[in-house]
Amino acid sequence: MTQFDWTERFAGTAALPAAVRRRLTATARVIHVKHGDQVFGSMNVPESLFFLYDGRIRVSQSSDSGREIVLYRIEAGDSCVLTTACILAEEAYNAEGIAETDVTAIVLPKLAFDRLAAEEDAFRNFVFAAYSRRLIDLLRVVDDVAFGRIDVRLAERLLMLGDGLKEIRKTHQELASELGTAREVISRVLNDFHKRELISQSRGIITFTNKPGLAAIAHSA
Amino acid sequence: MTQFDWTERFAGTAALPAAVRRRLTATARVIHVKHGDQVFGSMNVPESLFFLYDGRIRVSQSSDSGREIVLYRIEAGDSCVLTTACILAEEAYNAEGIAETDVTAIVLPKLAFDRLAAEEDAFRNFVFAAYSRRLIDLLRVVDDVAFGRIDVRLAERLLMLGDGLKEIRKTHQELASELGTAREVISRVLNDFHKRELISQSRGIITFTNKPGLAAIAHSA
DNA sequence: CGCCTTCAGTGACATTGTCACTTAAGGCAT
DNA sequence: ATGCCTTAAGTGACAATGTCACTGAAGGCG
């Protein structure tokens, strides 16, 4: 494999001295995961830190009864602290990360991570910031699930998923898994949206017909 | 104020060299908060890290509509990373910390924190571990709220709050705020528990009459 | 004792979740 | 093209939870 310089991609490594960066590119492994495959999960806990070089990962949690909820998404340039957290806390967890696109990630051995966190302020702050973002993300999820109305949440999510697009290719089941609810509930609400001429539907596809209308619902709480 | 040595109380500082510990006790402030008072909140964001020396803090989030949910509790010896997270992420948040007992906390200026995190492995790991625990706590909250039944959650929470006790002094409203639901819902479920002779009630007090029975409900999902 | 505040109970209703189905759409093999 | 098969979506009945607008009850205190 070519030793390409991924360090410029991350806020925590871009500003490091050239020597340190060379050491990193030599130590870390680069992995590729195909769209749709699991990046990590309860059966597959990486022993190391990892950083998302390219692509997007969807992190979700699933219940015993088979329902599922999306916690947040990891974008290129960010690090995935959840696996780290679980290693540190030595706790089982039922969250998993799925590659939403083809993914290129950097896997940094724990030892190298520790050394870097100790020696480089920029890197350490980057990691703290990554933890913080996830904590804030989860606060938001809790707020939504505990206090939000399902129609508002769905409208929000549709707009988020369809940002800049005319349609979304997702099944009702997939949308239900986004919000941690049941497919039937999504079907009902989408039907309502359809009756109000905010969207139109066909198998596996939702087409926007009135984004401002959806936005009004999304912001009505 | 007496410069008492709080450093022995924390996993992240107990093992530090004596010189470092002296520097810390000189730099950090010790604060006291009375039972029931707010330790931090949206109007009151501490600019510094803080560590809980003694007492217990309840961290909760509240909705616009006035409902509230307890996220987790901070016990003596732990650090409070949420405020740190919010500083780092530069995000508004609507979580607040309330002293559940009289509280003694150590407030460490950001500068001292950074230096310590850079220089001392034990301290840095302690902070990472604290972040991790909170992340895991929140995963649990999301799981409960999104997928859990209210009777199961209430039974669990009653047992947790009443651990080792014969009764709990909490109003229905307070229990509702623990779980992020409405008072009426708690009243209904408690009534049901009463009919099944698991508890007995009087104004502001819930008395256990059958803890194993409650435990059975708590573990039935 | 009566007043007042806070806590708890109640019934009607809305929203959301669950269950057990049916119906429809599209892919694929013959 | 035709029928088969898998997956997606619709439906109605019901259960669980949340909301609203009240009423009633308990305890503190003048």
UniProtKB/TrEMBL annotation, chains A, B:
Q: What are the GO cellular component annotations?
A: cytosol
Q: Which SUPFAM superfamilies match?
A: cAMP-binding domain-like, Winged helix' DNA-binding domain
Record's keyword terms, sorted: DNA-binding, Receptor, Transcription, Transcription regulation
Going by the entry's taxonomy, the superkingdom of the source organism is recorded as Bacteria
Limits of the Cyclic nucleotide-binding domain? 12-134
User: Which parts of the sequence belong to the HTH crp-type domain?
Assistant: 148-212
Q: Pfam families given for it?
A: cNMP_binding, HTH_Crp_2
Q: Which Gene3D superfamilies match?
A: Jelly Rolls, Winged helix-like DNA-binding domain superfamily/Winged helix DNA-binding domain
This chain belongs to which protein, by name? Cyclic AMP receptor-like protein
